[in-house]
Design goal:
With 128 residues, the protein is mainly α. The chain is built from 5 helices and no strands.
Length: 128
Amino acid sequence: KQWYQRRVRVMPGLLQATRDWFRIYKFPTGKPMNEFAFNGEWKDRAFAEKVIVDTNTHWKTLMANKGVADDVTTSNTTVQNSYGYLSAGEGTQILNKQAEAAAMTPVVPASTQDQVFVNRTVPEQVCA
């Protein structure tokens, strides 16, 4: 709790504003509000650090191509000793092919670029 309690003292309302943004950012486009894991409860530093370690372990497994499904590619241009390493030239060739295919897809409608202002009018516990 201490790590985010310090932030609350320095920037009051930051945590609630951040949670609000993640809850409602898609709502103005007609999508439902997001729901949070763990009933929206804040987790402590130890929990966050465990998530980071676990994620890094999974990433290393992925880069070693261990247990990766056939329809998943591990191609990359940054991890030189990894299974899917490509040279910059090989990566550029792949991206150029995708750019040609993307040119044939329809343009995103302008309405998806709308901006919406949300003013909090009720306390957090009511929004939860």
